[in-house]
Amino acid sequence: MLIPIVGADSLALITYPMTEEEKYYREKVWPRVLASIAQWVQEFPQQERDRARKDFLLAEIEKVREAFIQGCAELALRKDDLTYWSEKRLASLEKRMYKLGMDVKIVTGRLESISPEMIARARRYPIDTLVTVRHGKALCPFHNDKHPSMDVRKNFYYCYSCNASGDVIDLAMHVRGITFKEAVNQLQ
């Protein structure tokens, strides 16, 4: 077992021998737990799992929608300097509702030509094929950028100037002016 110890100027890891109980748990109990989870998942048909996922997504959309409506009401009453941050929060809630709605369409089969595997494959598409990245920075395509202000890490981007953010699919949609479905198909 590794236990981190923080010193005055460094972090050290001290190794303690594993107890018999910990060894038993790691060698005997944990594999049985994983096997029973796998068996439990197989007992539920794919349709049942899709229905449960759809119900969860619809409940999440309702929560986000309520937060959005409440945020709009608060923004209408706000007369201070925090309206900018309220607008940013509303924009992020709107983006979240859109993404949850897309997930519902995928689960219910309304986007027949796009599977979750295709979306996962599109998200792994290298973002540096869409924008030129040097040392993790790129010129932002969303505004007239003379110096790189867009940070690119792990196939996600964030612009410090205009606060644009997203993954490789979002970037392809905005840069190429295409829909989600077209972006996923192009990023295969």
Provide a short characterization of the protein structure:
This protein is of the alpha+beta class and 188 residues long.
Task: Please outline the helices and strands.
Elements: E1 2-6, E2 11-15, H1 20-43, H2 46-77, H3 83-108, H4 116-123, E3 137-138, E4 150-153, E5 156-159, E6 165-167, H5 168-176, H6 180-186
Helix pairs in contact: 2-3, 4-6, 5-6
Question: What is the count of DSSP helices, taking H or I runs of 4+ residues?
Answer: 6
Mean pLDDT: 83
Name the helicity range: 55-70%
Strand percentage lies at 5-15%
The number of strands is: 6
Low-pLDDT stretches are: none
Q: How far apart are the first and last residues' alpha carbons, in Å?
A: 42 Å
Structure classification: alpha+beta
Rg over alpha carbons: 23 Å
How would you describe what is shown here?
- The protein is an alpha+beta fold and 188 residues long.
- It has helices at residues 20-43, 46-77, 83-108, 116-123, 168-176, 180-186; strands at residues 2-6, 11-15, 137-138, 150-153, 156-159, 165-167.
- It has a 4-stranded antiparallel β-sheet.
- The longest helix has 32 residues, at 46-77.
Key words describing this protein structure:
188 residues; alpha+beta; DNA Primase, Chain A; 4-stranded antiparallel sheet; two-stranded antiparallel sheet; 56% helix; 12% strand
